[in-house]
């Protein structure tokens, strides 16, 4: 999973959205939920790294200082999002803005609260990258999910439309004809850790 075929890993940055406050989890920041003995954010960074991303930016919000102190994010660029409570859209904007000027051609965007999506799915989506016009998404039995690959040519449009908790949904709907779906149901499970009941998915 780490062979960086065609140099994709140097041209595509991993962008992890990990700012959520876990409102339905009693206010426990999702990044610090424990999974396999370590904070969930570490697991999610490891997935992007194992998939082949050379540069990884992590957007933090709720309890950002605690996350930086307790999680090993060495080798990552951490991006603070003071507007994290506005929803995922603000984190996506902050993350894409942080990639400006880095020289990367695309961003592979994943969410911290989906531990059922591992390196195999992320590498599969990364593998369809071609250039700055690339637009692709993992799909689960035909339904669009994460991770999502945004070529740099799309960043301005996504940033302009990413509001509230919608993230890039509106943009992807408008550009459905250009979006390549990469089926990943055979290698990943796209559940979210949103409620107390979901905590059973953590190990």
Write up this protein:
The model is unreliable at 1-5 (pLDDT under 50). The protein is an alpha/beta fold and 203 residues long. The protein is built from seven helices and nine strands; from the N terminus they run αβββαβαβαβαββααβ. It has a seven-stranded mixed beta sheet, sandwiched between helices. It has a two-stranded antiparallel ribbon with strand order 2-3. 49% of the residues are buried. Helix content is 28%, strand content 22%. The two termini are 23 Å apart. The protein is globular and about 40 Å long.
Overall pLDDT confidence: 93
Give the H and E element order.
HEEEHEHEHEHEEHHE
Cα-atom radius of gyration: 15 Å
Helix amount: 25-40%
How are the strands of the largest sheet arranged? 5-4-1-6-8-7-9
Distance between the termini: 23 Å
User: What does the oligomeric state look like here?
Assistant: single chain
* Beta-strand residue percentage: 15-25%
Number of helices: 7
Please outline the major beta sheet: 7 strands, mixed
What key phrases describe this protein's structure?
203 residues; alpha/beta; 7-stranded mixed beta sheet; 7 helices; 28% helix; disordered N terminus
What is the secondary structure topology, with strand pairs?
Layout: H1 8-11, E1 12-18, E2 34-35, E3 38-39, H2 40-51, E4 56-60, H3 64-70, E5 77-80, H4 88-99, E6 106-111, H5 119-126, E7 135-140, E8 143-151, H6 155-161, H7 169-174, E9 180-183
Parallel strand pairs: 1-4, 1-6, 4-5, 7-9
Antiparallel strand pairs: 2-3, 6-8, 7-8
Helix pairs in contact: 2-5, 4-6
């Amino acid at each position: 999973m780490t062979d960086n075929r065609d140099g994709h890993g140097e041209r595509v940055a991993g962008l992890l959205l990990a700012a959520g406050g876990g409102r339905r989890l009693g206010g426990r920041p999702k990044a610090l939920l424990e999974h396999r003995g370590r904070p969930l954010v570490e697991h999610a960074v490891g997935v992007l790294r194992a998939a082949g991303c050379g540069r990884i930016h992590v957007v933090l919000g709720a309890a950002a200082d605690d996350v930086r102190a307790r999680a090993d994010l060495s080798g990552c660029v951490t991006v603070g999002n003071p507007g994290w409570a506005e929803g995922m859209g603000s984190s996506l904007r902050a993350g894409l803005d942080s990639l400006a000027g880095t020289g990367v051609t695309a961003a592979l965007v994943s969410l911290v609260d989906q531990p059922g999506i591992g390196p195999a799915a992320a590498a599969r989506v990364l593998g369809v990258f071609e250039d700055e016009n690339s637009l692709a998404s993992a799909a689960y039995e035909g339904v669009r999910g994460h991770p999502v690959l945004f070529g740099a040519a799309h960043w301005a449009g996504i940033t302009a439309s990413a509001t509230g908790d919608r993230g890039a949904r509106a943009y992807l709907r408008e550009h459905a004809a250009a979006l390549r779906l990469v089926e990943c149901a055979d290698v990943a499970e796209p559940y979210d850790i949103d409620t107390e009941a979901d905590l059973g998915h953590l190990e």
